[in-house]
Specification:
- By secondary structure, the protein is of the alpha/beta class.
- The chain has two domains: 186 residues, Alpha/Beta hydrolase fold, catalytic domain (Rossmann fold), CATH 3.40.50; 60 residues, no CATH class.
- A seven-stranded mixed beta sheet has the order 1-3-2-4-5-8-9, with helices on both faces. Strands 6-7 form a two-stranded antiparallel ribbon.
- β6 and β7 form a beta hairpin.
């Protein structure tokens, strides 16, 4: 099965964007359009179990890496540059380790290919406890989430995963059951017998704790030639919180 995508622009310069956990390609449309204006053909993908892509009980980075390879082959793409955020960044890292000849530029946004100990219990509890049959409009879901979270940006992020089914009842785009059962796979480090000696760029927000010096040291065992770029006062969702600065940094890296 081939991943769902939206494509902006037409160019010999191909760029693939991969969203994060519980996200979808919709989170990146604004940025994708900006890249298409400066001469890129931008493919924004829904990863498996997210957005409009297929659902599966299996959910690992190796599988998501192969999903990406199948997409590239299906679209007859040659070399591609990749921007991967959070979970999408780890997918991109896994892909680059196993298919380095297909990668032009590699930009990883606020994540490292290491093990994380994030606790998603509250998020899953919030999502599991909502009665979607009683949700008449999106604001009903938002109000439910406000019982669990104060961050309006995060509430809006989760709310984008609602879609009306044919019978008018809301449902989640993502495969919640699979995400819950496979969460340890998503938090785990990327393991490989290969290493990536080409340039890799880690962009981090100074208000985020995903990219640390200790984590970079571990990551350097697989990615030997890395550069870290920090965005002041940026959090985990840099492409939204610091969109102009984030775009300018990526633009310079991709056009260099």
């Amino acid at each position: 099965m081939i991943l769902n995508s939206r494509i902006f622009g037409h160019s010999e310069k191909k760029l693939i964007i991969l969203h994060g956990f519980l996200g979808s390609l919709d989170n990146w449309v604004t940025i994708a359009k900006k890249f298409s204006v400066i001469g890129f053909e931008v493919h924004v993908l829904d990863q498996r179990n997210h957005g409009k892509s297929f659902h599966s009980d299996e959910f690992t980075y190796k599988l998501m890496s192969e999903d990406l390879k199948k997409y590239i082959e299906y679209k007859n793409l040659d070399k591609v540059s990749i921007i991967g955020h959070s979970m999408g960044g780890k997918t991109a890292c896994c892909f680059a380790l196993h298919h380095k000849t297909l990668v032009e530029k590699l930009i990883i946004v606020d994540i490292l290919p290491i093990k994380y100990d994030n606790n998603y219990d509250l998020i899953f509890k919030a999502l599991n406890s909502v009665n979607l049959n009683s949700v008449q409009k999106r604001s009903d879901f938002d109000n439910h989430l406000k019982n669990y979270f104060k961050d309006e940006l995060f509430i809006s992020f989760l709310s984008k995963n609602l879609i009306r089914s044919n019978n008018g009842i809301f449902k989640f785009k993502f495969n919640l059951a699979s995400l819950i059962s496979n969460i340890n796979n998503i938090l785990n480090e990327i393991e490989s017998n290969y290493f990536y000696e080409k340039n890799i760029f880690f962009i981090r927000g100074t208000k985020s704790d995903y990219v640390t010096d200790e984590g970079l040291k571990k990551s350097s065992l697989l990615f030997t030639n890395y550069e870290v770029i920090s965005i002041e006062d940026g959090g985990h969702w840099l492409h939204y919180e610091k969109q102009l600065e984030f775009f300018d940094i990526c633009k310079k890296l991709l056009l260099a």
